[in-house]
Amino acid sequence: LGVPGSPAWAQTERVIDVPTRPGVSERLLFIAPPAAKATVILFAGGHGGLRLRADGTIGWGAGNFLVRTRQMLAAQGVNVATLDAPSDRQGEPFLNGFRQTREHAADVKAVIAALRQQAAVPVWLMGTSRGTQSVAYLAIELPRDAGGPDGVVLTSSILTERRGSRAVPGMPLQFIKVPVLVVHHKDDGCDHCRYTDLPLLTEKLTGAPRKEVMVAEGGATRGDPCEAFAHHGYNGIEQDVITKIAAWIVR
User: Is the Cβ–Cβ distance between 42 and 66 less than 8 Å?
Assistant: First the structure.
C-alpha cells in the first residue's frame, strides 16, 4: 500500500459503535495508523447524517471535505474517527437543530472517552462548514478536564446565520480553553462563510492558549459555492491543507 504519507498509502477502516445516552449509540469509521500522535474526530457539514452502514459504507456525504480526505489525514500519523449522527437521529433532519444541544455534547463526550481507551493520545475535534457549529459548541460545553477535547480545528466556519441556529461567532467562544486552529479559504463563496467576516470569530477566541488562522488560496471551484467541491471545500488543494492541519495538531 505504499509508505505513510504517500498517496498510495491507505489504512483499513473499521466501524465502531459507541453507547452514549440510554438506548442511543454513535457509529464512527476509525482509522488507526501506526504510532499515531493524536486522534481527530471529524464532523461533516450539511445535516451531518452520513448513514454509516455496518460494513463501513457511507450513505451520504462521501464527498464532504473532511470525509473524502480522512485517509490523507491518517497518512499524516493521526488516528481518524469519522462521526455519523447518533442512532436516534438517523432520519431528517439528522443533526440540524441538534448540533447545539446537551444531548449532542453527551454523545460526543462518550465518543471521546471511548477513543481515549483506544489510544492514549490527545483527542481533537475538527469540523467543516456546519460541522463547526458542533465543534465550537462542544469545545465550550466540554472543558478538557471534564472529558472534553484537547484541541479543535474549525474549517470553513459558519460565520453568519439566517436559520435561527447560532453561527460560530454567536457563541461564547471566550470559554474555549484549548488550542484552536481556524482554517478558511480566502475566496470562500458561501454567503455564511465570507472570509471578510472571519474577525467576528477570531476576535472572540480570547481564552485559547494557542490559536492560529490558516488562510488557504488557490485550487478549483465548481458547483454550489457552499458545497464541498467549491473553494468552500478546498477543492484541488486538499493535500496541502490537510498536511498543514495535521502538522499544527501534533506540533
Answer: yes
Over 80: is that where the pLDDT of 215 sits?
yes
> Strands 180-185, 211-216: parallel, antiparallel or unpaired by DSSP?
parallel
Amino acid (one-letter) located at 227: E
**Cell (9 digits) for 180:** 484552536
DSSP 190-239: -GGG-GGGTHHHHTT--S-SSEEEEEE------S-TTSTTSGGGTTT-HH
Secondary structure of residue 17 in the 3-state scheme: strand
Q: What is the mean pLDDT of residues 116-134?
A: 98
The pLDDT of residue 11 is 82
**Confidence bin at 5 (pLDDT 50/70/90):** very low
Backbone angles phi, psi at 114, to 5 degrees: -65, -40
Confidence of residue 100 (pLDDT cuts 50, 70, 90): very high
Name the amino acid, one letter, at 84.
D
Kindly give, in sequence order, each residue whose CB lies less than 8 Å from that of residue 225, ignoring residues fewer than 6 positions away: 188, 189, 190, 191, 231, 232
Rounded Cα distance, 11 and 33, in Å: 6
Indicate the pTM of the whole model. Answer: 0.96
CA proximity to 65, closest of 228, 244, 245: 228
| pLDDT per position as a tens digit, 221-243 | 999 999 999 999 999 999 999 99
Query: Residue 236: which residues within 8 A CB-CB, separation 6 or more?
Result: 218, 219, 220
Q: Considering just the CA atoms, what is the radius of gyration of the chain in Å? A: 16
